Amino acid sequence: MAALSAWFWNERFWLPHNVTWADLADPAPGVEYPKAGHLFSALPLALGIFALRIIFERCVAGPCARSLLIHPGVGRRAHPNAVLEKVFTSITKSPDSRHLDGLSKQLDWEVRKVQRWFRNRRNQDKPSTHTKFCESILLGCGILGIAGTVIPIRSHSQTGSLVMTPGLYYYYVTELAFYWSLMFSQFTDIKRKDFMIMFIHHLATIGLISFSYVNNMTRVGSLVMCVHDASDFLLELAKLANYAKYQRLCDFLFIVFSVAFFITRLVIYPIWVLNSTMFESWAIVGPYPSWWLFNFLLLVLQVLHIIWSYLIARIAVKAVLRGKVCNDVRSDIESSSENEPDTPTDGPKAYSHSPKGENGTNGHCAAAKARVQNHSSW
Question: CA 16, CA 377: separation in Å to the nearest integer?
Fold first, then answer.
């Protein structure tokens, strides 16, 4: 284990050539540098945030949703059927025509009835608008957005060197704890199609935050988090307005989010952050292995920014030209054909969607969620 630890914490990878771990372990009086052990304090805080979120969603978000007439409502449920349930869980959730014909003959059902059963069964596993509203409301409060905008600026204005200030430390630990809590909550929230993508996203974000802290790149790390936090909470607010059917407010918030996204990701990030990390830092400390890795990851992030900006721009153009865009493919309820008859075995009447999109709106924010939800917070 000692040999493995020495290999992993090799100074020639992590630090510039004229810096050692001893230099960081024994700083001058009143000076504090980041240490890997500091990050362990994020784990208990993550559990606290996770517990707080559960309490908040049940005690605050739920009543708030009901006050906006967003009720838990139960959609059309599939009638219990052992044969179809076995096919659904072990073979396919969307059977093709061959499977449908075979099941139709086996059960002596019409093919349309078998199709309806599978559609209703798929809808059972998808979150309702009430659930999505409760999941988004805590983020929509903009807590991290406000903290991400204020704390790093104040911290960097207090010192001109790469030392750790209390405000910067608490911001780092809070951000890291927040993403750990998202990792925990993924296993309790309703499973979505992008479960694995979001899991990898959270894991990568945790790794990058930890990497920048251990490597004492906290100034650039905090600025990257600040740039992302400044617009992320606006998307959550837009989604909340969409779920509550305040379409004009949703459109306004989506426009504000789009402008903030473009400015922070395509202007501030490359001109301020990348220019400093790639060119100014080269002149000050020169390149070293972890420097190359860190800048490579930041460049990959910039490429993703360009892709996401293109997708957001497409949504905006479609909204202007057509007045509607596609639904949120992650969690929308499948609607049934208008001429498809109901049968007594299908249970209560299903919720359906108008051509305008999720919840009867034009779908701007729903599509924005589908396109942007997977974006990395780094």
Answer: 27
